[in-house]
Each structure stands twice: as C-alpha cells, then as structure tokens.
Amino acid sequence: MTKLAVWCLAALLLPAGCGRSSHRRKPKAPVTRSSAKAPSPTTAPPVVPSGQQQDVDLGDDWAPFILQDGGPNPGDAAAKPNAYRATFVALANERVNVDGLPPRRGEHNYLEVFGIPPTLSVLRARLEDDLQPERQACYRAVDAPGLRAFTGTVAYLDRDRARRDYQEAVRDADWVDRAVGAHIPFTRQGTIGLLRDDPKTRGRVDRALRGQARVRAVQAAQARLVCEGLLGPRAPYGRNHFTDGMFDLPTHEALADWERKNDVFGWGFLGGETAAGLLRAPADLHLETFKRILAERVADGAGIVEDGSIDRLKVPAIYTDQAGESHPVPNLIAAHTAALATALGVATPDDLLHFLRARTVDDSEGSEGGAASVAKLAHYPAPPLPPYYAGEMDLSVEIDRGDIWYDFPFDAHGKPVVQRREHFPHLTLFVNWNKQHIPLCRWRTTIGSWRSEVQADGHIYMKYKNSDVGPRLWKNIVAGPVWIPPESTPAKDLLVRKVLDRNVGPVTVVNTDVMGPGFQSAYGLVMAIHIDPKRGGFDNQVRTHGSVDYTSIAQRFSHGCHRLVNNRAVRLFDFVLRHRRFIRQGNYPIDVRRRFVVDEQPYAFQLKTRGYYYELARPIPVNVTEGRIMGAVQKPIATYVRKPGVDYGAPSSSDAATSMTPPRLEPPAESATAAEGAPELGP
Description:
The chain is an alpha+beta fold. It has 3 domains: 3-27 and 390-673, L,D-transpeptidase catalytic domain-like (Beta Barrel); 53-122 and 284-381, no CATH class; 151-270, no CATH class. Helix content is 28%, strand content 21%. The protein has 15 helices and 21 strands. The chain has helices at 3-13, 84-92, 120-130, 133-140, 144-149, 159-182, 188-197, 199-227, 249-261, 272-278, 282-302, 332-344, 349-359, 550-555, 566-579, and strands at 53-57, 318-320, 326-328, 360-362, 372-374, 377-381, 395-400, 403-405, 426-433, 436-444, 450-454, 460-464, 470-479, 495-499, 506-510, 526-532, 538-547, 562-565, 582-598, 601-624, 628-630. Strands 7, 9, 10, 13, 16, 17, 18, 19 and 20 form a 9-stranded mixed beta sheet that branches. α4 runs antiparallel to α8, α6 (159-182) crosses α8 and α11 packs across α12 (332-344).
C-alpha cells in the first residue's frame, strides 16, 4: 500500500474517535489533585516590545512549544519529557522515515503539509542537489511549453482507466497521422481543419487534440519528477518504472509527493496550482519553502497567530486602539517572517544559498552521524504588535458549523442525494480586549454528518454523528494525542499493507500510525478536549484537533470533531499556551494491549501513553453555533438507519434500526444541480 493510501486509511479511521459510542470505554483524563504541593500554573512569557530584538530558533533540533519538556519556565518544578519531541525532530531532519526506520534510497520525508516542516539543513541538501550539473541539464530539457499549453486536469482513478485513456490518445494520434499522410498536398493543420469541417470526424479530431495535449503535459510532468528523483531510477520503491505519457499510479504517487514537498494541498492530480508550480524554477520553490520554515519558527518563537486568514471576512476585521483610532488586524506572521528574512539577508535564491552555506556548522559532536547543521539562534527587530497583545490574553473561540443537512443522504434506491453546501464550517479565534471581540485567525474545519458504522451483527448502518452545539470549554490541551480504537472497530480496519523491507515486499501490519502518537494519529499532532460547562464538565468525546486528511477539511465531514490542518492546529495551541497560564501535567501513561486474529493470522498492539497533557488555569470558552439548517429535517436523526439496497437479513426483536426507513425527502430545487455530492461514507 502506498503512503497516500496509508494516510487515506488513517483519515477514514480518524472520525471514530469523535462523538459518543456505546461500545467505547472512556479513559479518564489526568486529574490534578488539590494539595499543598500542587503545581502552580506556568506564567505566559513576556511579549517582546516593538523594535527590540526577537530571538528565533533556526536550529535543527527545533520543535514547537507544545512538544517542549518544560523545566525552565516559571511554575515548572522540573522538566517533564515529551516523548514525541525526539520523533518530530528526527522526522524533520530525515534521520528516520515515517515508519521510524532509516530512510531508503530515494526516500524523503515530505511532511510539511502534515505539520512537520523540514529543517534548514534538509533544505540546504535539497538545494545543493538541484545545483548539480546533471540535474540542471535535466531541468532544462523539460518540455515547459507542453505543460504550459495544457489547461485541463488529469486525475488518477485506477490503473484500468489510466491505461484506457492513454491507449485511446495513442490510437487517436495514429488515426490523425494516417489522415495527414493521406492528404499529402495539405499541411498537418490544414488536414486537421478538413477533418473538423466534417461532422462525422469532428468529435474524434477534437478528442485526439485533447489527448495529445494531455499526453504531452503528462510527459513534461514526468520529466520534471524524474529530475527531482521522485520518479524513475532514483525514485523510492514502486516508482522506478512508469509509462511515458500515461498518468499511471507511479506518476500519480510521485506528483503527490511533489505536492507535499512544496506545500501544495492537492490530490496528486495534474492541473491548476500543481501544474503552475511544476513550471517554476526549483530554486524559487526552495525560497518559498525557506519562508514557510521561517513562518513556523517566528509564529512559535514570538507567540503570534495572525496569518491574514481573517482578511477573507465579508466585513473587514478591525480594532480600535486606546486613542480611538481604527486599525486592520495585521498579518503578524507575514510581517515577522519578512523582518527575519531581511535580518538574515535573504531575498533571492542566491541569497538563500549563501546564507545556508555561511551558517552551516560542523555538528559532529552533537548530531547523529556527524552531519552539518545550520547555526541555531537568530535575531531580528520585532515589528509592532497591536495593543491587545499581552503575556496573558483573554481568548475565545467560535466554531461556525456552516450549512447543515440532517436529511438522509440516500434515496429509496440507495443512490446518493446531492446536498449542496455554500457555507462551510470555520473556526475563528478571538481576543477580547478593551470591550472588543477581535478576530485573529479564521480557518476551515469540519463537523459531523451521516457516517457508516459496523454494528454487532456485522452489518454497516448509517448514523448521524452530530457536532455538539452551544457553549463548551477547552480545559485540556493534549500534544501527541493517542486514539484508542473502540472495541467495535472491525479487526480488518486495524490493519494496513506496508513495505518495510524491499527484499520482502508488502506485508500486513497493525496500523498503529492512526493510533499515535504522531502526525498521522487520528487526532493529529495536538488536540483540545471539548467539555460542557452546563453538565459539570461532561466530555462527549468531541475534539478540536489536527489532521493529515486535509481533503476532508476542504470538502467532507468528520464523526463530530473539528479538524484543522496539522500546522494550524500546532500554531493555534502554541499560541494558547503562550498566552494562557497552564499546568504542565505531562505524559499520561496507559497500558492498553489488544490481540486479535484476521484470516487465521494473529496480530497485537500496545499503547503506552494517552498523550502529553496541559491543563489551562482558566479554560477557553468555545461557542459552537447551530449553523444554517438545510433541507426538511430540522433535528438530527438519533437512530441507526439501514442503507437502501443492502440485505440485512431477517430483523431481530432487538434491532434498533428495523423500524427506521429512509425518509423520502426531496432537497430544495437549487440543490439538484449541486456539484459537491453526498458526504463521504468511511468507517
């Protein structure tokens, strides 16, 4: 199974951690006991005034604040090691691959879209590789005009479809060539014009032209991917052989890797932002990567979160200072990143190369393998912070659920019903200052919807997984959270195919990646637990958390949790811990062991931690809005519902779904032409 498929499986399993389940035993969260020796909350660090020097960690051993061990901070009696920090650093430095093994030939960790940016030393190695004469010659040979002329999108569906599309394009091209040969007096364009004038051949000519343009663009993309070592002889396992001009599986996987390398949130399809990026010079893309690395470092080091995302609001986000003057909420991360880049003297790709070479130090005494690394500490003059900044800030969150469909998503024949959404869920972080409710950032998130669940009878039923509405609190933040599969999880869903040894090939193993801790965990790199203050702090298993499944955040649903792209989740909870007092509870040990058998093969796994816990001294209020209810059903259906067309056998007297049939409800007229489609139906 490919990395992309593994991450997709993690995404499908992810939602089972959200929402109540009658089959799940809820582990208790760590409790801080009241006593004379109870730890005091950690005080938020002071804000660096405008113009003073801001320190930023550029070292290869950097990890975000949520993964720090503590100790030196006020109120921390002693360090409490965060076990995942070492793994984060090793992945960022490409010392290990995603399976914790030494990287194989041609293997790289392109994990920026999943919340783990590369170190500057890794970036320098990439840049130096691209400067090699043979690679420069390879880049120059890429058919950029062929890629630039292509205006469509090439998607990968399956091997058969890829082969069929390619063979059709080849046959059509041969047909055009034969027609040109039969019309000797005419030029090629003249012959094509004649064929297009004939209604009987016009359709095939147009299809042939589209096919030739597509094949040429795919060939150009493949050539670029070969240059970068993502496809062909230097590529990772499974991508050494491909068909020139066919958008086959190796090409699709290589392009997905290229997207992750360059922080493109795509699907491994050729077109749009991905095609435009392939036309850019590698050195320019490395400079963009450098700026993104700096952005994560300054956001963490300066304790800032404003990233310009609130600029997309219909009403401009402004605040009024003490003098009564209005100001737009600034993009602080962009301002600090630009200030740091200026202080480092980096404005062009050549500047970047000079900077990385000049700051490289011999790290033979401190790093694994004696590799060179980039000097650790840098300084830059801090741009002005708005007056609402302070060490301790009054923060709150709103989660707008957007457009909501409670209607059953299938008709009586089991066909998906289109349920159009125009307004998608968003999470907004606010600071409450000087009688103002000021938005700082606003990001897409997810809500629950209709999902499939396997019940004790072995059948799959549909269940509406609601996202709780109303006031909630964030009291506990968990770094490196762990998802414990419910007992009802089908055993086969806990397995995954991986290539751990090229000499052995794919093997079936327990998918502990989705359990965590780790970036592929069902809860991502960090989460906050929603509790209900009106019910004595009741935990309904709803979380705001990171996720590797960025496609679900863009278009689909969860099982009730509010997902964020991993790096945004890290920024958010870094910011919270920088500006709210907290108690560092540290690692919460557990000992969960499970054995099971699939196809007569025994498997087992053990989980030793629940995650690294922080308790906020003053919880953050979170308001989850009702959203805009679409369709005819105004409240979520609480029972399990049978999917039409599925044979469930004879109903039993205890079957909770026997009396429930899909309501025959028609969506509003404007939904009939919707393009979004029905929600995903993952486990």
